[in-house]
Amino acid sequence: MQCLNCGHHNDGGKFCVKCGKKLEAVAAQQAAAGVEAVPTQQPAQQQPIPNYSQQQVPQQPNQHVENAKKISKLYIGYFMQGLKNPTATAQGVRGEQFINGLITMILFAISIPLMIYLGIDSILDKVLNKFSVLLLPLLGSDFIDLREDLKNVVKLDFTDIVIINGLISMLCIGAIVLVTFGAVKLAKVNVSIQDVFARFGAFLIAPTAVMLVGVVFALLEISLFSYILGFGILGLFLTVAFTILSFKHSDSNGLDSVYGTLLTYIVMAILLVLFGRHLIEAVVSSLGSNMQDTFGDW
To answer: Domain spans of the chain?
Structure first.
């Protein structure tokens, strides 16, 4: 047996003759030394696979909604400034405030039929109070029953009264501004139609605020809204005069502001009478259709 420690060949025995090592121990040692240690390889950590389906994709804001919010915010600031300093604000605006002027005119126009729609109960109650002196002695308790029945059935159609007449009112306001623009141009003032619309709308801020207060009063059934409606219409007449006078005349040969204002007033009065007649007819028609069954049963 060959000694694996020193390489000496031994004939037998348990120990090497040359080095004295135990042959079995040396063999076991060499055998252990000859085996290469194979390092245990740790499995690589697996990275988690991102689940894109679970990730929340940020929603893009609606562009139309954002634009509406921006315009509303700018208009509120413009409205409050015009309410605080109406003359200074109106004289400083030009065509760049055209959109704000249109919004003011729309608010003014829609507030008229909306005030009537919301305050019809108060109007009817006031009318019945005036006729109660004549009808109560004749009808007695029947008049009281009739009055309660009328309050229960008096319902105006929102589409006919507010939407349709609101559109007609907007057209009337637009026509009044166009006539105002014509009066300014006849005075030889170099302005654009956007300038006139913007300035007219700026002067109309205060009357519009009055009309909005009237809408709130009508909603609360406070009878003062009818007087507020009158003040609002008066404010519309003043707006025409203020708008025409606010533009400086560069040519003395043009139409004088007084005549231009009177001309606009004539057209304005005609338009308001026509609109008022149409609104009254719509209210009477709506009331008649709702009260027909009640009068028949009574």
So the answer is: 1-31, 65-297
